[in-house]
Amino acid sequence: MIRSRLLASIAVVEKRTALYETHRELGAKMTEFSGFSMPLAYGKGTIEEHLAVRGASGVFDVSHLGTVEVSGDAAFHRLQANLTNDLGKIEPGRTQYTHLLDETGSVVDDIIVWWLDDQLFHVMPNAANTSNVTGAIGGRDITASRVVLAIQGPAARSALAEVAGTAGPARNCVVPFEFAGASGYVAGTGYTGGDGVEVAITPEAGIRLFNALARQGVEPCGLGARDTLRLEAGLPLHGHELGGGITPLNANLGWVVAFSKADFPGRAALLRQKERGADPILAGFATGTRQPLRAGDRLLGGDGTDAGWISSGGYSPLRKEGIGLGFVHGEALGRKDLAVVRGDRRLPVQPVAYPFVELKSR
Fold first, then answer.
1. Of the four listed, 41, 311, 330, 337, which is most buried by Cβ atoms within 10 Å?
2. Which CATH number does the domain 68-136 belong to among 3.30.70.1400, 3.40.50.150, 2.40.50.140, 1.20.1050.10?
3. Sequence spans of domains, the chain
4. Which residue has the higher pLDDT, 334 or 354?
5. pLDDT tens per residue, range 72-84
6. pLDDT band at 362 (very low <50, low <70, confident <90, very high)
7. Nearest Cα to 232, choosing from 65, 47, 96, 56?
8. Is the overall model pTM greater than 0.90, yes or no?
């Protein structure tokens, strides 16, 4: 009994990225996320980090995300047969956003594919879903062999050029990258909605690159800012806008689904949903005040009828008001009398288009 309890306690010990000690040295407040101990925010706080990325540049440790290497003659066809988007639309040296579904059409995970060479792909799932993805597509989990840094913001490329001699590739492209004697890749991708790049490289070189960028004035940023930035940009988060019972069509992400290609898991279910119409549908909301919306808030009509729920919410530092993404039942779409209720207080919300702010990327 004592042995089983000890083994159970060991099983829930949080994982650490190679940058864990660096985060601690910089005074980061750490939090558990998908089994990893990750920085929530540094000394300046989430809002200042958010504004640094929108106005200049920030660097995030996103090494908790997975990397699955799929290679060989059958790699392309294996991914085509299991993922929703059509790799035939791109070529080596490009990246693609795609989904892995179950047979009901629910999103098992949303994924970025880096097509590195003719027969070499790096498939990047969310941290908690790496084993689900390898179970579906095979491949080799190489997550522990690299770190991934997201350098984001309008000045991110110039900062990377100062430190590493390259500004990185154009949006949705990926090229080889070298730093501190190590080889890796840099992609024109990110999760903030604005311009930026992501670097995958060995842990030792990644630590040196993170510190060099910080010395260059790039703001170290935590998960708090990563969430507020992606929310402002109207980007989905697995477990909130994607997951069990939620299809790409519910989440307004039908463009990720290539119905014209050969069969893939969930295709038949999506075709049936497409024919009858998706319900509920993801929509954007704002409070018009500094009061933030919160995930789990119930949306009610003026007559008290259930209209849906808020899937992600928070405060937008650029709009200076509370914003949120939420799922709305078809009959409630466009209603102007929606509100969330907290205790005996009713907080009106206004339907607004998302992304919530206008952003530019290279």
1. 311
2. 3.30.70.1400
3. 2-62+146-230, 68-136, 279-352
4. 354
5. 999 999 999 999 9
6. low
7. 47
8. yes
